[in-house]
Amino acid sequence: MAVASLLFAAIAILMVIDMTSDAGTGADRKHLLGEGLVMLASFTGVGILWRGWRAAEARAAQLDVDLDAAKREAEKFRADAGEALKGLGAAIDKQFDRWSLTPAEREVGLLLLKGLSHRETAEVRKTTEVTVRQQALAVYRKAGLRNRSDLSAFFLEDLLLPRDTAPHV
Fold it and tell me: For the chain, what are the domain ranges?
């Protein structure tokens, strides 16, 4: 955007110089009017690009503020829920022991619980999506579950408050 602004400004300045030179040599009014319009368009382009650049800067600044706020909120959640999350992690680990999952199956199970897709899990584990699918099926089979939803529900179902005791918002 800055390069385009500089280009428009350079064109406008060159047009001013050319118009001054042409006016001094007695160029006709149509020619000067045409060059004046090009100069005006160039200055208009500079203004539009400059305003767009300022707006983009403002949006970027707001995104930085929003990102910082989201990071603070996530840190607060982790701090508030730290002990509960440790307990949940230990409970998941214990259950994986009961199911006799291999280290690879445990890792796949955790990544699926975190919400990663098979493709994302394969990328994280530096393996193929087919391998991840096979390992996920092994997790489900050993756990006696049908799919990822059942796996998530197994660990999260008891975390949710029953409807009649849930706070009303």
Answer: 1-81, 99-161
